[in-house]
Amino acid sequence: MATENLLLTALPREVYKRIENKMEQVDLSSGKILNRPGETIEEVYFPLTCLISVTITMMDGNTVEAGVVGSREMVGINAFMGGRETTQTQYIVQVPGNAVRMKAHLLLYEFDTNKPLRDVMLKYTQAYIAQISQNVACNRLHTLEKRMARWLLESSDRLYTDELFLSHEFLSHMLGVRRSGITETVQYLEKKGLIQCGRKKIQTIDRQGLEEASCECYGVIKEEYDRLLKFKLER
C-alpha cells in the first residue's frame, strides 16, 4: 500500500501496519462527487495524487470552496466525530488521481479502540478546523490576487507539482468570484512572471515570487499542520 498521504505517514508504523489491510487504493476521476449534503459517509478517502474540494452550494446555486483536501489530509472526518452525515458540504474531485479508501465504520472502530490513531486524527481535525477558520478570514479580508496565489501554492503542495490542470470556470467556483475576475487575476500574476498559463493549465514558474504575492494565510496554515502533525512539506 502506498503511503504518499502524509496523514497516514504521521501514524506510528505499527498502527499503520494494523490498518493497512483494511484500505485499498482507488482511482478518482475529475468531477466525481464522493459525498453530497445529507448523505451518510460510508467510506473515507486519503488522497495520494488527487485533489478534492470541500464545497458549499447556496440556495441560489452559487458554489464556493470551504476547504481543500490533498496528500496531507483525508475526506470524511464526520465519520469519527459523532455524525455520519456530510451536513451542508459536498466533496468533489477537482484534480484526478489516486487515493486510499477505507470503510467509515472500520476507521470509527480504530478511532474508538486505538489511542495512537485517535491522537493523530484529532490533531488533524484541529489543523483542518484551523484551515477552515483561516479561509473565512482570508476570503473576507484579502484581495483576489493574494487569495489566488495562496490557492495555487496550497494546491501545488498537495499534488507535489507546479503544473495544475484547471479551468478558469472551475477556479471561479472555488474562489467564489466571477470568471472575468479569475481571468484578470491570472493575467496579472502572469504579467508579473509568477505563473504561465495554457489551455486549462496553470504552471508556477517563480514559486518564491508567488509566496511573496500570497497573503499570510499560506504560511500560517502550513506551520499549523507542521506543528500539529510533525511533518514537513518538502518542495
UniProtKB/TrEMBL annotation:
Pfam families hit by this protein: HTH_Crp_2 (PF13545)
Domain Cyclic nucleotide-binding: 7-89
Domain of life, per lineage: Bacteria
UniProt keyword Transport present: no
Keyword set, alphabetical order: DNA-binding, Transcription, Transcription regulation
Keyword Transcription regulation carried by entry: yes
InterPro entries: cNMP-bd_dom, cNMP-bd_dom_sf, Env_Response_Regulators, HTH_CRP, RmlC-like_jellyroll, WH_DNA-bd_sf
Protein name according to UniProt: Crp/Fnr family transcriptional regulator
Biological source species: Nostoc linckia FACHB-391
